[in-house]
Amino acid sequence: MDRIERIMKMEAILDRTRAAFDALSDALEAYKSSLGDFGELRGYYTGGEWIEDHSADDAGLLPQGLKRGVLSEDAVFDLLAEYESLRAELSEISNLPD
To answer: d(Cα 48, Cα 43) in Å, to the nearest integer?
Structure first.
């Protein structure tokens, strides 16, 4: 590989890496800012209110047009599992050698 090819290759790597790092930085900011809401959702799901609301839905006590994805059997549970997976992945990545 001659000098021009090497510089062009490194320039392309710089551009791709810069874009990836910028996207990751933005995603991490969004992730961090969502953790408070996520904690509230986790408390709702694990604290008993979810069961009460789910039971009310089963009993037909909620309005027909109410968006209720949060009451599905899997939506919050799957998000909790994904959170744990992301935490593990972020921990693994943060321990990579230089």
So the answer is: 8
The amino acid present at 12, given as its one-letter code, is A
Using left for φ > 0, alpha for ψ between -120 and 50, and beta otherwise, residue 57 falls in: alpha
pLDDT digits (tens, 9 = 90+) for 9-68: 999 999 999 999 999 999 999 999 999 999 999 999 999 999 999 999 999 999 999 999
Domain ranges, ordered by start, for the chain = 3-94
The SS3 assignment for 1 reads coil
CB 40 within 8 A of CB 50: no
Q: CB of 25 within 8 A of CB of 17? A: no
* Separation of CA 50 from chain center: 21
Give the DSSP letter string of 4-36.
HHHHHHHHHHHHHHHHHHHHHHHHHHHHHHHHH
The alpha carbon dihedral of 93, 94, 97, 98 has a sign of positive
Amino acid at 35: L
